[in-house]
Structure formats: C-alpha cells, structure tokens
Specification:
Blueprint (H helix, E strand, L loop, with lengths): L6 H4 L12 H12 L6 E5 L6 H12 L15 H7 L6 E5 L6 H11 L9 E6 L6 H12 L5 E7 L7 H4 L3 E4 L5 H14 L3 E2 L1 H11 L3 H15 L4 E2 L1 H7 L5 H13 L2 H13 L4 H17 L16 H10 L2 H17 L6 H13 L1 H4 L15 H26 L23 H14 L1 H10 L9 H17 L3 H6 L4 E4 L2 E6 L2 H22 L5 E6 L11 H11 L1 H9 L7
Parallel strand pairs: 1-4, 1-5, 2-3, 3-4, 6-7, 9-10
Antiparallel strand pairs: 8-9
Helix pairs in contact: 5-6, 8-9, 9-10, 9-11, 12-13, 12-14, 12-17, 13-17, 14-15, 14-16, 16-17, 22-24, 25-26
C-alpha cells in the first residue's frame, strides 16, 4: 500500500508557469534571474495558501539549476533540482520562525552563513512566518541580512507584514501576493478531478472555491475530504459538499429574507430554530445572513456585480431579491447584523441576542419612513388650485388681523373685514398702505395709555409690591435652608429692586449669577402663582463692590494710619516732626 500524499503537496507547482494568479511576481523573478539582478533578500507577503513558500522553493531551485531553461525556469531533472524536490538539498535551509524565534536560533543561523555551499551556487535560507520572530531575534539578523556573503540569499515569508520591523522591510525586496481568484481555483480543481478520475458537479467545485476564500491550499484540503467521501469512481455532489463543509444552504437565507420583507416574525424565529437543530450556532447563522444580504446589495448595481462570488445557478435569485429589497432596508439590516456579530460572544443569552436582531429585521420595513410628495396642480383653473388659493388668502387675512391686534393692544381698534367676490379665482387683498397708516396712528395716539398699562400691570394681574416679593422670597429661603442649600439661601437674602414686572436681585459675583440661573426654573413658577402675575420675571445684576486699597509704600502706610488714628497727625503737628522715608 503506497503512502497517500495530500493534494496540496502532490500538486504543488514546480515551475513558475504553474503558479496560479501570481503572474506579476513570477514574471519579475524570472526577469531577475535572466538578467542576473537578484537581490540578496526577499520578503513574500500575502494571505495563507497563495504560493509564498512555493515561489520561494522554485526560486531556490532556479538559481541553483544546472540546466536552467531559456525562460529562467528550473529543469527539474538535474541533481540540484531533484535534491530540492525530495527535501534533501544541502544548500537550501527552511526555518519555521514560529518555533525558532529566539536570539539563539538567529545566532546559529548567522554562524552557518559564513560557510560556502557544498552543492549549488547559492545558499538559500527560507524563513517562513517571519513575523513571529522576537525583536531581539530581528536585531540579531539585521547585520547579516543587510550585508550577507555573495552566495547567501534570504527569502522571508509572512502573512502579517505589519508585524515585521521597518528595519527588516528596508533591507528586502517586497513582493505582495494576491488572493487566488474564484474561477482559477475552480479550474485547478477540475484539472485535478480529471487526473484522479472522479466526477464532479460544477456547483460543488464552486462551493469549495468559495469556502476557500482565495487560498488554494485550503481548497485542496477540502477537495481531499470530499473525494474521500465520494469514494473511488464516485462523484462530488453539491449536497455532499455542503454537508461535509458545514455550509448552511442558501435556501435558509432566502427564506429568512422573504420573511423579513413580509414582516413574518414567526417564520423568522422558526427558521432560526431549524438552523440550531441542524447543529449550526447562532454566530454562524448571523455571519452567513450578513454575507447573504451583502450579496443582495452588490447585485443592485451592475458596477458592483463582479463582487458577487456565488455559483451560477444562484445568481438569478440574488438578482430577483435585489429588485425587491430597498437600499434603506439593506443598510439597516446589515448594520443591525454587524452589531449582533460584535456583541454575540459577550452576550449571556446568545439565542435571545440573535432572535432580537432577527425580530428587528422582520420589523425594519415598518420603521423606514416613506417620503410622499403631493402632486403639483396641473393648471391654475383646476379645483385644487382654487382651494389652495382660497386657503392662502384666508391665512394671509388672519395673519394681518393678528398683527394689527398685537401692535394695537387696544380693544377699540377694529379692522374692516376683507370681502372676496363670488368667483374663487379672484381674491380681495387688503390695502396694506392704509392698514399701515392706521396702525401707526393708533400706536402713536395710545402710547401713554400703553405705558400706563405696563407700569400698572396687565389686565387680570395684580401689581407687584416689594412687601409681597419679600414675603415670597422669605418662604423660598426657608425652604432652601431646610434642604441644606446654604449658598442659595444667602443668595435669596440679597437686596432686590422692582421695576414693572421684573424683580432684580443684586449679585456679588458671577458664581451667584450661575446659581440664580439654575434656581429660576423652580423659583419663577412659585412666585408667579403666589403673586398672581404670570408675566413677571426675575433677573440678577452684578454689583461692583469697592475693594479697599492696601497701603504698600511708606507714605501710603502713614496716610492710612493717620486716618485710623487722628492723634498721629496731631503729634506730628505739635512737635513739628518731619518724617524721613
């Protein structure tokens, strides 16, 4: 029985032309080999399973090949190529930085660099997952990486470039690997399926490629699993692939979307319960539903349609739901699902957490405002236009009447009513010039009466007396004292001044002004009710206090003491004393 070799190793590319979806890198490396312009250090960056280590091995094989082709490809037949293919080459060292990340490991590597290669032209060091090295290990490698011997070449590979020190990046040629395209993965899987003589469904291979997320190694690992399930001479089916890869069927997501659009909460909760019974957790369902609605969103515009990575038989259904789902609904649903995804792990009741999100999705269409615009009238002679004009005229007449009454403040001012003709199209507009003149005359003639009314208070309001205000403030002060508000208690004891309907309280500092502003919300309603004066107001005014000047010079000190004690001036006068300052 021969030992089984997984497809990721068995079908690993051995030449640059076999590398998939990385032509921008393979072309550059082949040109560098052909022109003999090889750098001494390379850094391969990119996601997992896209060919970083594979390209590093092919590069090491090509620069040491004894019979390199005209296109800078390794021959795979010479002794150096065969030794590297069988992992017994003495001139190529592969190091896993995840398990060799200490300073001692890097020092051992640096000590080996000074020995020339026993076979081949170059000594190649391939350091995988280089971002796992410690800072001290990076620093130990710096000098050798900057000025290695002419026969030494370093190839570093990482999936997290941002974790590599900037001093390392500056010493390397950096190559960024792309994710492998969905169609390229499907094409490679078809080729391998034909080589192993196994049948397949197109949708099954597309599902594997979609699940791989651009990583060929992941796709080949899943392909081996499904192939073993199908058996020798079997067929890779969509249903079998879906079950083994634990992928929730699209039907669940489409049914959930349909229930959300119709507002059927019971169907949404029943679908979620069915998903849980199949062994999927709530987080898996939420992430899948968000991806599903994202696919619906990208289908709404032809410019984003290439972003839809699904099987061909599903695309028409996405196009159908893209026309039914509104943009506000999709944005609100995606936002809510993202919030549910973030808070899922920290939730104490994860099922309820997901169910609440689904209920909000099912009722999302109820909270989306529908903007309605009234149609414009087709012509001025239509019935709607006549009614609109009549309403505008009535509104104008009522506004003018209110304006006259507010500026007049007298009861005997009467405006003549505005009359309109029998035809609704004709609107009688009042004479604004005569109205303005009438208002000015009435205002001028009644100014003394108006001032008198302001001084005596409005109708129905009692005049404010200082005694009543003091009594009201005293009651409020006692209430503040009982509540322990000492600062407010002293504030209410400050001198007051009454001018019309305004009570002015003298304030000592700006702090009291802020305190009075906060007390007015409680003080004003109480005083207006007790004084029967709904329009009264309370304000504060800062009083400039005279700050006594302090004496600083000798003359000022003598003058200050003389004012306090008259005997000093008398003594100075009797004895004719002169003060020497």
């Amino acid at each position: 029985m021969t030992q089984f070799v997984v497809s990721a190793r068995k079908y690993r590319p051995t030449t640059f032309k076999d590398v998939i979806s990385q032509s921008h890198i393979t072309t550059t490396l082949k040109n560098a080999i052909a022109t003999q312009q090889l750098a001494h250090a390379f850094l391969f960056c990119g996601p997992r399973g896209v060919g970083k280590t594979t390209c590093a091995r092919i590069l090491a094989k090509a620069i040491n090949c004894l019979q390199i082709t005209a296109t800078a490809e390794p021959c795979n037949h010479c002794a150096n190529c065969l030794s590297l293919s069988s992992n017994r080459a003495l001139h190529v060292y592969e190091l896993d930085a995840a398990s060799h990340n200490s300073v001692e490991d890097m020092r051992d590597l640096v000590s080996q660099v000074r020995y020339v290669p026993q076979t081949g032209k170059y000594k190649v060091y391939i350091i995988d997952e280089v971002h796992m090295l410690s800072n001290a290990a990076f620093n130990a490698l710096l000098k050798t990486l900057e000025e290695p011997p002419s026969y030494a070449i370093f190839i570093l590979a990482t999936t997290e470039r941002h974790k590599v020190l900037a001093t390392i990046l500056s010493r390397c040629q950096i190559f960024n690997f792309n994710r492998i395209k969905l169609e390229d993965i499907v094409t490679q899987l078809k080729t391998i399926a034909r080589q192993v003589s196994i049948g397949y469904e197109e949708s099954a291979l597309q599902l594997i490629a979609q699940k791989a997320e651009g990583a060929m190694r992941d796709a080949l690992s899943m392909f081996d699993l499904i192939t073993a399930s199908a058996g020798i001479g079997g067929t890779i089916t969509y249903a079998n692939t879906r079950d083994h890869l634990q992928i929730l069927d699209y039907d669940y997501y489409f049914k959930c979307t349909e229930a959300c659009l119709t507002g059927n909460i019971a169907t949404v909760l029943s679908l979620y319960d069915a998903v849980l019974r199949k062994g999927f957790n709530g987080h898996h369902f939420i992430v899948g539903l968000a991806e599903h609605l994202r696919n619906v969103l990208v289908c709404k515009d032809s410019a984003t349609l290439p972003l839809l990575e699904v099987t061909d038989n599903i695309r028409p259904r996405y196009a159908e739901y893209a026309t039914r789902c509104t943009m506000p609904f999709l944005l609100k649903a995606l936002t809510r699902l993202n919030q549910c995804d973030i808070g899922y792990k920290s939730s104490q009741h994860q099922r309820l957490h997901v169910e609440l999100a689904l209920i909000e999705l099912a009722t999302a269409h109820l909270s989306i405002p529908k903007s309605t615009i009234d149609p414009l009238p087709k012509s001025d002679h239509s019935q709607e236009a006549v009614i609109a004009k009549s309403r505008s005229a009535d509104s104008a007449r009522s506004s003018l009447t209110r304006l006259a009454q507010s500026n007049d403040t007298l009861d005997h001012l009467a405006l003549k009513p505005v009359t309109s003709t029998q035809q609704p199209e004709t609107i009688a507009i009042p004479n604004l010039a005569s109205l303005k003149a009438s208002l000015a005359a009435n205002k001028k003639s009644n100014t003394p009466d108006l001032k008198k009314k302001i001084e005596n208070g409005c109708d129905g309001e009692e005049a404010i007396s200082e005694e009543m205000v003091q009594t009201c403030l005293a009651d409020y002060r006692q209430q503040l004292k009982n509540n322990g508000c000492i600062a407010a208690y002293h504030l209410m004891g400050q001198p007051i001044k009454i001018e019309g309907s305004v009570v002015t309280i003298s304030l000592i500092n700006p702090v009291q002004a802020e305190l009075l502003q906060s007390l007015k919300e409680e003080l004003l309603p109480t005083m207006r009710k007790k004084l029967n004066h709904p329009t009264m107001n309370v304000q504060g005014i800062l009083v400039n206090q005279i700050v006594p000047e302090k004496p600083y010079t000798d003359q000022e000190k003598l003058k200050y003491l003389s004012k306090k004690n008259g005997a000093i001036a008398l003594l100075q006068e009797r004895f004719m004393l002169e003060v020497a300052y």
